[in-house]
Amino acid sequence: MGIELQGAPISKPPRIDGRRLRSERTKQLIIEAFLSLLRDNSQMPTAVQIAERAGYSVRSIFERFPDLNALRVAATDYQLAQALALAPPRGADGNRETRLRSQVNTRAHTCERGVALWRVLLQFADQDPTGQLKQRIARARETTVGRIELMYRAELSTVPEDERRQLLIALEALTDMESWARMREQHGLSFDEACEVWIHAIDRLLPATSGCDGRGSLS
Amino acid sequence: MGDPVVDAPAASNGEKAPGKAPRIDGRRLRSERTRRLIVEAYMALVRENAQMPTAVQIAERAGYSVRSIFERFPDLTALRVAVTDHAIAEARASAALRDLDASRATRITSQVDQRAKTCERWLPLWRVLSADSSQSPDLHQRITVIRQLIIMRMEMMFKPELSAMADSDRRKIVLALESITTFESWARMRELYGLSVEEASTVWVRAIDRLLPAASS
User: Fold this and answer.
1) Is A70 left (phi over 0), alpha (psi -120 to 50) or beta?
2) How far is Cα A92 from Cα A82, in angstroms, rounded to an integer?
3) What is the pLDDT of residues B76-131, one digit of tens each?
4) What is the enclosing helix (H) or strand (E) of A11?
5) Is A197–B175 a contact, with Cβ atoms under 8 angstroms apart?
6) What is the pTM of this model?
7) Distance, in angstroms, between A207 CA and closest chain B CA?
8) How many angstroms separate the Cα of B178 from the Cα of each of A63, A166, B116, B154?
9) 3-state class percentages of chain A: helix first, strand second, coil last, to nearest 5
10) Which A positions 57-96 lie with beta carbon below 8 A of chain B?
11) Structural Rg of chain A based on CA atoms
């Protein structure tokens, strides 16, 4: 789009829809209030609590989200996008130890931030008539497994297909959100101690590394 | 667990009266039986529907009134706690330690077989009981006990291997073994990945074998 002025087309700056911007910002603040309440209390907050934390009325919430399920879906999309943005694959070409530490560190931070929401998703997935929560759960799992495959390609490529699949399943179970939560909440491990458990175990589970870095296990 | 249902009458000096047969308190016996039937009805409904049953459903299945339930359990959380106690006792009775002195391969297979059977049998109940368990301290305590029992069993089954390790490494391996063999891990393999019991067991056997070090000589 543009207007003709003295023969040359001059592009018109895009018009900023202030009302829409404000509405988007309100949506984001509601989602952030929801996530922050979840982290504080580890249970599904009520609409009143969310409104109070966000500084809006309950009506404002339901003007933007038809129901709390829609808010859960939007919060999940927000958190998934944030997790991907905050944790791009790092050190994928590094040696075995670098990749192990990088993958565990990333996963640990994701679990630390996301376990409260993850529990809510699992709790409400069966009650969600739209199936959107189940889709998000599946997507989150695929992302996690995809990351494991990417980071440990040098090890996983050395074993036959069925063994590779079995290893992936075991690695997924080992680095599950609840596995992290158990170490932190039940066994009282610090962030670093819990990371060490995963690093040690993954190192034992993975076969020898193929290719040029020539490193076997850490121990 | 409940009090004994057979009471011996006490003599006036506080000692048992000799030669007198113990008096059976029939009302108490019936009440215990009702409790047990309510607990069993709850468990059967969870296995069938994989969700928490309502008081009406439990009463219907047990053949009692809803009032009967709440005469014996102050609320459904108390009933969940009683169901958990019953399940722990039943699971312990059916999961005796076997092959403790056998070879490494036999012990791994034996442990995985047992754990797989437990997961197959108790998964629906586990889901219902552990959901929201943090809201009830009694329930939370039972869930912790179940996890501790699972860990203790692994420590006994893999003692030759674990005792070969330094304390800090042993703890890491035990935590990893726990994570890999959870109910949720089993459920994912069976439901999400569509693995048979044998295939899922093989995943666990191989993972445990990789995690465990060589046994101490």
Assistant:
1) alpha
2) 20
3) 999 999 999 998 888 888 777 888 889 999 999 999 999 999 999 999 888 888 87
4) strand A8-11
5) yes
6) 0.81
7) 9
8) 45, 17, 13, 8
9) 70, 5, 25
10) none
11) 22
From chain B residues 46-85, the ones with a CB under 8 A of any chain A CB are: 51
A197 vs B: CB within 8 A: yes
Measuring CA to CA, which residue among A170, A99, A158, A197 is closest to residue B209? A170
Q: Pinpoint the alpha helices (H) of chain B.
A: 26-49, 55-62, 66-72, 76-94, 104-130, 137-157, 159-162, 167-180, 183-187, 197-211
* Residues A172/A109, Cβ–Cβ less than 8 Å: no
A-chain residues within 8 Å CB-CB of B210? 204-205
State how far the Cα of A203 lies from the Cα of A174, in Å rounded to an integer.
12
Give B-chain residues touching A200 at CB under 8 angstroms.
169, 172-173, 176
Phi, psi of B110 (to 5 degrees): -65, -45
Using a CB-CB cut-off of 8 Å, the residues of chain A touching B175 are: 182-183, 187, 197, 201
pLDDT digit string, tens, across residues B20-72: 666 677 777 788 889 999 999 999 999 898 888 999 999 999 999 999 999 99
